């Protein structure tokens, strides 16, 4: 990573595609802030650039670079060094550790959601913490996903599942905020003859990586790998329903955090749509879908596109008779996890998301589809259109809700 | 019941089975994927990064030399000019379907004020007629665009600078293009432009000038200009030097007109005006009929909007009451970005599975058939098992060909590469920098038959810069070869996958 800047040809393709540079001209951009700055660092210069923190971490630059570089990692490096010396700022610590609040919040969701929606409290949070008051905080559910799973009865509890086992990494938002997505994943997999197992897990660490705290992220990573290694070594696929988590499990554990055993686990990790589409193309997916007359615009999350596995959700949903799904291809939503909640970044975040908002509103569809929770929250905030996970559409089409 | 419906329990991992796999996401690969998809085949396109479209002009060149001088191994000779023109017309049709109508047969203006002929021109970029009187507007803070240089190159133009709102010290062309899509920002810019234009009309205002008065101040003197030209990010000396060369290599407008007349496909030529709404602002807005009866054009740097460029151009033309045309900038190129975005939109709306950030690392070949191609990205190593494959990985610049000294290889399939005499460096390059017929090494590439298949492969088609036998720089053929070979390769791959693949399955 240190000397990859030498491969940069200064072709500017990353600048052309950078969603931040388009709306915040003060941002130095992936070329200057990435390989450009890295070259100075390598020469021993104390190289800093103002406004480099405006990077969303969307990894668009990695995706479009024709020379195979990862400018986003280089752009993140000054932040990683700073956090390594000084630690996370208090506000950033709070935003990256919401998963610690979850177990308590799901026991008193009314109170927590009420507090987080209270305008004077949000105003105070903005003044004191620097957490922007505009965007609604995600709402906690009244029961965690794992609590649902513990009471759930598998159709395969008395006999072996014909297609074997699948391990499910649900992530924080499914566990505490959107447990129905986890339910849909489990029921769709069971419908297709898989037995679902639920390894112990904690936050994948993506918010920590994005905020520069690689040590804390590695701590979470080691915990997860400890529990995922066993199924991975048995060749059990590990499906993930949040594309941010799957990108971290597949790419960041081995290549950014350099964790032991990460390679073995990464090979077994699948995004849920990727897994189901591969099943279909290998003749393993049930297609007893009901007819659903729906146009469903799909917003491709940056962390899905960055994976290099195509757009499986679109092909998958188009298997349903009557459904028309297409990738609106309008760039980053601007939310980028914790980014859109930061006071100094809220405006940029909203400007980045404008093309996505316009494209979705122009589609005239009542529902939109995306497989990243922060993208869905941003869609609902910016457009008022209901945003759902592709697995929920599949679940509906199988008639599993009836 | 569940057991009955499910196949044998053996999940094979990250194995995908499209019918056609296109490798490479540049102009050729995108065109190929689109053509393959139109046959009805299921298509996946894998690309390691973006192509060079974002660095190019957003216009498509076809051929700037007579077609009968092309060597027999030239891709155009393999396909025949009729097929080439058919593919270009299909390409034009595909783009106008997604709202980006290219129009045939005009010049564009370069950042050095040279007229550059091209075959399909993007909305708002068609140059004014040679006898039109022209004003050039520059935006302060926008790098690499000096209106005085453009005016000097054109020879009959006046120019002025306009201050952008907030007077930024420096502004990125893509950022400015996006800002101009904002109505409020645009209104401020339009006001500033109108003020500057009216001042320049009164002449000799401090912010403006004309060539005869101030060309000496411009950074690049007109007689030493080298123009950026390019459908393939190629650079060529041009501009004011062209007359000295007698127009042989760089067709002047006269040469262009006669050659175009002979080669223009009537279909696209006739249909363009009907669907040409977005370029009409330039012609419909009309000129004010004041004291001066000659229509006056205003040239801007090519930053007037991104995907909404047509709307932005029209709004500006209406507001200033004069036809507007855009001038090409050095990379990063906003017109190139527009074309890339509309092409990507066309490909995705057609239903192609677009896998960006995925690098083809290994191919498996058995008995003259490609069985699988393995691709790698941050999301894992995917094995694609398709019926037909299209190779569109580019040339030496795009890493579709790799050079180690005079050893040139095609790294994915190990296809034989046609090169000049091995071991004889002098046969690879001409002694002069810009030789009449181009440098021989530029023609290095993979040889194919007239179906665009390399020898010994039943289900592999090659297109674009990977191909041998052509020189996009000397011939002005880069975009045309990519589109024509991409279209033919994609369609053949799609048909083969549907017939041959269907039987094998």
Which structural traits does this protein have?
heterodimer; A: 402 residues; alpha/beta; Rossmann fold; two-stranded parallel ribbon; 22 helices; 50% helix; B: 505 residues; five-stranded mixed β-sheet; 15 helices; disordered N terminus
Tell me about this structure:
The complex is a heterodimer of chains A (402) and B (505). In chain A, 50% of the residues lie in helices and 7% in strands. With 402 residues, chain A is α/β, with parallel strands linked by helices. In chain A, helix 11 (179-191) crosses helix 22 and helix 14 (243-255) packs antiparallel against helix 15. The longest helix of chain A has 20 residues, at 214-233. Chain B has 505 residues and is α/β, with parallel strands linked by helices. In chain B, strand 16 and strand 17 form a beta hairpin. In chain B, helix 7 (183-201) runs parallel beside helix 12. The radius of gyration of chain B is 24 Å and the shape is globular. Classes of the chains: A alpha/beta (402), B alpha/beta (505). The interface between A and B is large, with 60 and 53 residues.
Summarize the structure.
The complex is a heterodimer of chains A (402) and B (505). Chain A is an alpha/beta fold and 402 residues long.
- Cα-atom Rg of chain A, whole angstroms? 21 Å
N-to-C SSE series of chain A? Answer: HHHHHHHHHEHHEHHEHHEHEHHEHHEHEH
Q: Biggest interface: chains and residue counts?
A: A-B, 60 and 53 residues
Count the E strands of chain B: 24
Distance between the termini of chain B: 26 Å
Discrete helix count of chain A: 22
| Integer count of domains of chain A | 4
Distance N terminus to C terminus of chain A? 51 Å
Tell me the fraction of residues in β-strands of chain A, as a range.
5-15%
Main beta-sheet strand count, sense and barrel state of chain B:
5 strands, parallel
Query: Averaged pLDDT of chain B, please?
Result: 81
The spatial strand order of the largest sheet of chain A comes to 2-1-3-4
């Amino acid at each position: 990573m240190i000397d990859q800047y030498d491969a940069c040809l200064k072709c500017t393709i990353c600048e052309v595609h950078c969603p931040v540079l388009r709306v915040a001209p003060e941002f130095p951009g992936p070329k200057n802030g990435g390989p450009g700055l890295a070259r100075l660092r390598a020469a021993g210069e104390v190289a800093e650039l103002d406004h480099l923190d405006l990077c969303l971490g969307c990894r668009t630059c990695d995706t479009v670079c024709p020379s195979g570089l990862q400018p986003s990692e280089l752009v993140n490096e000054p932040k990683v060094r700073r956090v390594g010396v000084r630690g996370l700022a208090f506000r950033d610590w709070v935003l990256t550790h919401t998963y610690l609040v979850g177990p308590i919040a799901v026991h008193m969701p009314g109170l927590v959601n009420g507090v987080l929606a209270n305008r004077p409290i949000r105003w105070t949070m903005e003044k004191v913490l620097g957490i922007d008051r505009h965007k609604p905080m995600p709402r906690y559910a009244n029961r965690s996903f794992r609590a649902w799973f513990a009471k759930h009865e598998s159709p395969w509890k008395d006999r072996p599942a014909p297609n074997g086992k699948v391990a499910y990494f649900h992530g924080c938002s499914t566990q505490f905020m959107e447990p129905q997505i986890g339910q849909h994943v489990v029921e769709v997999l069971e419908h297709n003859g898989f037995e679902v197992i639920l390894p112990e897990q904690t936050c994948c660490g993506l918010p920590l990586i994005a905020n520069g705290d690689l040590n804390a992220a590695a701590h979470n990573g080691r915990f997860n790998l400890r529990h995922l290694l066993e199924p991975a070594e048995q060749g059990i696929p590990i499906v993930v329903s949040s594309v941010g988590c799957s990108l971290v499990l597949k790419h960041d554990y081995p290549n950014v955090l350099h964790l032991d055993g990460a390679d073995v686990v990464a090979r077994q990790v699948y995004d849920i749509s990727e897994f189901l589409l591969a099943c279909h193309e290998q003749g393993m997916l049930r297609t007893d879908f009901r007819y659903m007359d729906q146009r469903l615009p799909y917003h491709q999350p940056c962390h899905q596109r960055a994976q290099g596995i195509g757009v499986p959700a679109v092909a998958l949903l188009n298997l349903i008779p009557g459904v028309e799904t297409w990738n609106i291809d309008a760039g980053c939503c601007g939310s980028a996890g914790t980014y859109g909640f930061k006071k100094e970044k809220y405006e940029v975040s909203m400007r980045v998301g404008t093309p996505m908002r316009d494209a979705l509103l122009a589609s005239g569809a009542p529902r939109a589809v995306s497989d990243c929770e922060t993208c869905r929250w941003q869609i609902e905030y910016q457009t008022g259109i209901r945003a759902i996970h592709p697995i929920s559409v599949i679940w509906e089409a199988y008639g599993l809700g009836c | 019941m569940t057991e009955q419906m499910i196949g044998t329990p053996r999940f094979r991992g990250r194995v995908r089975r499209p019918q056609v796999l296109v490798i490479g996401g540049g102009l050729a690969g995108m065109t190929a994927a689109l053509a393959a998809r139109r046959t009805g085949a299921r298509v996946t396109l894998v690309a390691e990064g973006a192509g060079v479209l974002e660095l190019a002009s957003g216009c498509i060149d076809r051929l700037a030399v007579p077609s009968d001088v092309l060597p027999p191994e030239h891709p155009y000779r393999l396909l025949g000019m009729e097929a080439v023109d058919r593919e270009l017309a299909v390409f034009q049709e595909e783009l106008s379907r997604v709202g980006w109508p290219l129009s045939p047969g005009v010049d564009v203006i370069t950042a050095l004020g040279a007229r550059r002929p091209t075959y399909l021109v993007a909305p708002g970029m068609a140059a004014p007629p040679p006898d039109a009187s022209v004003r050039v507007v520059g935006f302060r803070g926008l790098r690499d665009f000096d209106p005085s240089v453009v005016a000097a190159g054109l020879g009959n133009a006046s120019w002025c600078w306009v201050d952008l709102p907030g007077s930024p010290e420096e502004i990125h062309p893509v950022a400015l293009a996006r800002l101009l899509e904002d109505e409020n920002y645009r209104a401020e810019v339009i006001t500033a432009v109108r003020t500057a234009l009216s001042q320049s009309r009164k002449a000799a205002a401090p912010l403006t000038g004309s060539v005869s008065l101030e060309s000496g101040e411009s950074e690049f003197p007109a007689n030493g200009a080298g123009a950026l030209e390019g459908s393939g990010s190629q650079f060529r000396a041009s501009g004011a030097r062209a007359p000295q060369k007698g127009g042989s290599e760089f067709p002047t407008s006269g040469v262009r007109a006669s050659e175009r007349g002979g080669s223009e496909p009537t279909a696209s030529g006739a249909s363009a005006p009907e669907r040409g709404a977005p370029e009409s602002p330039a012609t419909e807005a009309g000129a004010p009929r004041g004291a001066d009866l000659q229509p006056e054009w205003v040239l801007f740097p090519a930053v007037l909007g991104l995907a909404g460029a047509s709307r932005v151009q029209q709004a500006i033309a209406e507001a200033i009451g004069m036809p507007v045309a855009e001038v090409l900038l050095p990379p990063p190129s906003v017109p190139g970005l527009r074309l890339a975005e509309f092409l990507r939109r066309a490909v995705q709306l057609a239903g192609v599975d677009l896998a960006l950030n995925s690098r083809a690392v290994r191919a498996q070949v058995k008995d003259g058939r490609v069985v699988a191609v393995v691709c790698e990205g941050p999301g894992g190593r995917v094995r694609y098992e398709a019926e037909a494959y299209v190779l569109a990985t580019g040339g030496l610049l795009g890493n579709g060909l790799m050079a180690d000294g005079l050893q040139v290889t095609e790294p994915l399939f190990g296809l034989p590469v046609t090169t000049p005499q091995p071991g004889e460096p002098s046969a690879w390059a001409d002694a002069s920098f810009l030789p009449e017929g181009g440098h021989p090494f530029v023609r290095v590439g993979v040889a194919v038959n007239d179906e665009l298949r390399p020898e010994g492969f039943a289900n592999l088609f090659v297109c674009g810069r990977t191909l041998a036998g052509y020189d996009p720089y000397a011939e002005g053929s880069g975009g045309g070869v990519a589109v024509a070979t991409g279209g033919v390769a994609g369609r053949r791959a799609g048909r083969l996958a549907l017939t041959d693949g269907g039987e094998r399955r």
